[in-house]
UniProtKB/TrEMBL annotation:
This is Amidinotransferase. InterPro entries: Amdntrnsf_FN0238 (IPR014541). Gene3D superfamilies: L-arginine/glycine Amidinotransferase, Chain A. Keywords: Transferase. One of its GO terms (molecular function) is transferase activity. Pfam families: DDAH_eukar (PF19420). It comes from the Bacteria. The keyword Nuclease does not apply. NCBIfam families: citrull_CtlX. Residues 32-44 have a biased composition (Basic and acidic residues). Residues 1-44 are annotated as: Disordered.
Length: 309
């Protein structure tokens, strides 16, 4: 087991998925679907169903919930943005930038976690939405659980005051930087350009605007003994940074999309496979919404009350 790699995840299977026009303004990775609304929704439902099955076959505990779309939640498939879990029984709820995303928070998921895991407290930051302060969970922050660093790209979805509150409550050091994608636009979520695993990290160092800051990011990761694998802007666009390491009874795996896996170089694959098996998931429809596998998986870093399989 690894403190960085959870062995259980929460997933939400959408029934009315569509790329969200409300979030397209600052998410340059988002693309409109060329299929009908019904076909897009059906394909997204099938992709999540298959992804959950593949993860379970790999020995990962998957808690799969359904979203019927009645509350107009087109991005419900990305639960890692509205909540996160932490060792010691702590859960955080986050303030979301777009109004439609605020409707994704679900008490039934929180109650399930309380029932099956040891939850001591829930720290709710969602009230900050009324003050125009946003912090979209482990999309806005990529957490190094070993060194207690919260790597955060500045964006509409990562307010410094909200980040400071989280860092104080959860004992993380915030390390903040400006980013630019291939078109010079700020990258909306940190987890699109960065993945921290137990023994390696995928990072788009060239997307960090200040070279000195990029060097500091690299140094902080290498101080923990990790090998830093720089990824290109094209690999960022292919969601190579939007991956998550998970723990299974057979060892660690790196869950990522088939598109992301195909973008990796042979040298990058060798480093990754030294400590984690690649586990590609085919989610091209989901990726139209501008997020990929990491966004789809909310890691469970809580102690189970009993077997949750």
């Amino acid at each position: 087991m690894s403190i960085q790699a959870p062995s259980a995840v929460v997933m939400v299977r959408p029934h009315r998925f569509t790329p969200n026009p409300e979030t397209a303004e600052d998410n340059s990775f988002q693309k409109p679907s060329e299929r009908s609304a019904d076909e897009t929704a059906t394909r997204a439902h099938e992709e999540v169903t298959r992804a959950a099955a593949t993860l379970r076959e790999a020995g990962i505990t998957v808690h799969l919930f359904d979203d019927d779309g009645r509350h107009n939640t087109p991005d419900a498939v990305f639960p890692n943005n509205w909540f996160s879990t932490h060792p010691g029984g702590h859960v955080a709820l986050y303030p979301m930038y777009n109004p439609s995303r605020r409707r994704e928070r679900r008490t039934d998921i929180l109650e399930f976690l309380k029932q099956h895991y040891r939850v001591q407290d829930i720290i709710d930051y969602s009230g900050l939405e009324h003050d125009g302060l946003f912090l979209e969970g482990t999309g806005a922050m990529v957490l190094d659980h070993l060194a207690r660093v919260a790597f955060t790209a500045r964006s509409n979805r990562a307010d410094p005051l909200a980040l400071e509150r989280f860092a104080t409550h959860f004992n993380y050091e915030p390390l903040v930087f400006n980013t630019a994608d291939a078109q010079g636009k700020a990258i909306y979520h940190t987890n699109v350009l960065m993945c921290i695993a137990t023994q390696f990290a995928l990072v788009a160092l060239d997307a960090i605007v200040d070279p000195g800051r990029a060097g500091e990011v690299r140094q902080r990761l290498e101080e923990t003994g990790r090998e830093v694998l720089p990824i290109s802007q094209q690999q960022v666009a292919d969601f190579a940074g939007n991956a998550i390491e998970l723990s299974s009874p057979q060892g660690r795996v790196l869950a990522l999309s088939t598109r992301a896996a195909a973008s990796l170089s042979d040298a990058q694959r060798r480093v990754i496979e030294h400590s984690a098996r690649l586990l590609p998931l085919d989610v091209p429809t989901i990726e139209l919404a501008g997020g990929s596998v990491r966004c789809m998986l909310a890691g469970v870093h809580l102690a189970p009350r009993r077997s949750t399989r």
